[in-house]
Write a structure and sequence with these properties.
Number of helices: 10
Low-confidence stretches: 143-151
Mean pLDDT: 84
Number of domains: 2
Shape: elongated
CATH architecture of the largest domain: 3-Layer(aba) Sandwich
CATH class of the largest domain: Alpha Beta
Order of helices and strands: EHEHEHEHEHEHHHHH
Strand order of the largest sheet: 2-1-3-4-5-6
Structural class: alpha/beta
Strand content: 5-15%
CATH topology of the largest domain: Rossmann fold
Number of strands: 6
CATH superfamily of the largest domain: Response regulator
């Protein structure tokens, strides 16, 4: 029997992790070696267990799936990253792909799709949800590869507003309240900012924006 595919699974909902683990381990060739409830724990467990694949959610407490993906890919380049999430928003998709994710699957996928996605990324093949593939094709047809940054891609006025509030130390929730938008929209703006600026955290984004003179702290 061939060696099992070793997986570290990260999601902040224990019930979701339990269901995913059962789907994966029912196949016999996949073993979940550790579970994490947040991004920072996922990075630590990947360092400890050196799995073949890390299956990550995007929205987790503390370190997001985007930052965790960037860390894992930088520190453990042999570990493949599969993102399993409820979000198919463009900012999340392209920020994750730019961060180095090998696959992006929606939680609406069935168990067979999930298992095959884990096997595919372990083999070094991309595994993208059909809706994500369509987004990539549309971006490419528009003349810009997904996630491409030309120098530093210009931030929109709303993204600059978000960055100014982040520079004042506001949380995502406080930023959303200040701009009368949803928490999810604020998180999406931040993900887009990170992708455009090729940074992994709000601290890096704020520092770079200050250096460039795009924002000032009043």
């Amino acid at each position: 029997m061939s060696q099992r595919i070793r997986v570290v699974l990260a999601d902040d909902h224990a019930v979701v992790r339990k269901g995913i683990r059962e789907f994966l381990e029912a196949e016999g060739d996949i073993e979940v070696v550790a579970e994490a409830g947040d991004g920072a724990q996922a990075v630590a467990l990947v360092a400890e267990h050196r799995p073949d694949v890390a299956v990550l959610d995007i929205q987790m407490p503390g370190m997001t799936g985007i930052e965790a993906t960037r860390r894992i890919r930088a520190e453990h380049p042999r570990v493949k990253v599969l993102v399993l999430t409820a979000y198919d928003d463009d900012p999340y998709v392209f920020a994750l792909l730019q961060a180095g994710a090998h696959g992006y699957l929606l939680k609406t996928a069935d168990s067979a799709q999930l298992v095959e996605a884990v096997r595919a990324v372990q083999r070094g093949q991309p595994a993208l949800d059909a809706s994500i593939t369509r987004k990539m094709i549309e971006k490419m047809a528009g003349g810009r590869p997904p996630g491409a940054v030309q120098g530093t891609e210009a931030l929109t006025e709303r993204e600059l507003e978000v960055l100014r509030l982040a520079a004042r130390g506001l949380t995502n929730k406080a930023i959303a309240q200040a701009l009368s938008i949803s928490d999810r929209t604020a998180q999406g703006h931040l993900a887009n900012i990170y992708a455009k600026m090729s940074v992994g955290s709000r601290t890096e984004a704020v520092m770079e924006a200050l250096r460039q003179g795009w924002i000032v702290i009043e």
